[in-house]
């Protein structure tokens, strides 16, 4: 997935530790608010994606920019956001950088506020065309690539 001319894939490094309860604890160095557990590594990493998406929702609600992932250490586990969520994170961050409120985006897209609310809901299955139109209204272009 491309945004501007740089490649964006939001894969966040995680710390995975066996805790005193014989469960695996997952923490995110880039997003300390996101914490998850699981009975084994696979379950912990699966739950970590849910924790990551929940924290992203909180960032959206608080109108805070979602930080980009740092470079992982060698052998460090990663949790990758789904492509649709990535586009929404990039859209929200761009709106914040430009100072464009949801009401202004609705005006630019000629849609009602509930449509913009869904567009900026990481768990809502928005249409890619709507996200693409939102980027265009911000003077940006969304490019998609398969690697």
From TrEMBL:
Q: Where is the HicB-like antitoxin of toxin-antitoxin system domain?
A: 12-115
Source domain of life: Bacteria
Database matches in InterPro entries? HicB-like, TTHA1013/TTHA0281-like
The record's annotation in SUPFAM superfamilies points to: TTHA1013/TTHA0281-like
Pfam family, any one: HicB_lk_antitox
**Name of the molecule in the record:** HicB-like antitoxin of toxin-antitoxin system domain-containing protein
Q: What is the organism lineage in this UniProt record? A: Bacteria, Pseudomonadati, Pseudomonadota, Betaproteobacteria, Burkholderiales
